[in-house]
Amino acid sequence: MTPEFSSKSLYDDLVKFGHIIPVGVPGIFGRGAIFEDILTRFEAAVGRLAASDHATKVHFPPCINRQILQKSLYIDSFPQLSGTVFSFTGNDAAHRELSSRLKDDKPWGDLQTMTDCCLTPAACYPVYPTFTGTLPTDGALVDVQNWVFRHEPSDEPTRMQAFRVHEYVRLGTTDVVVAWRDLWLQRGLDILLSLGLAVKAEVATDPFFGRGGRMLAANQREQKLKFEVVCPVISAEKPTALCSFNYHQDKFGTIFNIKTSTGETADTACLGFGLERIVMALLKTHGMDPGSWPKPVREVLWT
Ligand code: ZN
Question: What is the whole-number distance in angstroms between the Cα of residue 248 and the centre of ligand 1?
Answer without folding.
Answer: 9
